[in-house]
Amino acid sequence: MSVKIGDRIFENGKEFIAVEFTSNLSENKGTLIRLGEEIEKQVALFRHQGKLFCLSNICPHRHQPSIYRGYVENGCVTCPEHFWTYRLDTGENINQKQGIKKLKTYEVIEKDGVILIHIDYFEKPK
Ligand code: FES
Fold first, then answer.
1. For a pocket test of ligand 1, which of 62, 69, 77, 126 has the largest count of ligand atoms closer than 8 A to its C-beta?
2. Architecture of domain 8-118 in CATH?
3. Contact 25, 31 (CB under 8 A)
4. DSSP-derived 3-state class of residue 22
C-alpha cells in the first residue's frame, strides 16, 4: 500500500504525517508546508547535500514566515529578511551575537516517494 499526502503512519513509535512528494523537492530550495491556519503551523522543507530537513518557517528574529525562501549553503539556511543564519540540522543561529533564539526542527523521513514529518509540538513565536 503506498503512502498518500495527508496519511498518518507510525514509525519507531512516533506518528508521522505525509506532507509532500519527494519529487517536488529541489536541492537547496525550500518548500512551504502549511499544517493549519496558525502561523506557527508552517514548516519549511529542504533537501541539502542529499539529506532532508524540516524546520519552523517562522524566523525567530522578527517572526517573518520566510524561512522557506532562505538561501541554503554549507548546512545552513539564511533568512532572506535580515540574513540571520540557522543550521539545518539543529536550527541553531550560527551567530550567537544575534541572540540564542533558534528555529524549531522536526524529524523527517522519506517513504514510497513521499516525505513525512513528525510534529511533537508547534512552537509559537515569542
Ligand atoms: S526576520 Fe529573519 S532575519 Fe529578520
1. 62
2. 3-layer Sandwich (2.102)
3. yes
4. helix
Res 100 pLDDT > 90? no
- Angle, CA 93 vertex, CA 91 and CA 95 arms, to 5°: 160
Dist CA 92 CA 89 (whole Å): 8
Phi/psi of residue 77, each to 5°? -120, 135
Which protein residue's CA is at the shortest distance from atom 4 of ligand 1? Answer: 82
Is 0.85 topped by the overall pTM?
yes
The residue extents of the domains of the chain are 8-118
Residue nearest atom 3 in ligand 1 by C-alpha distance: 82
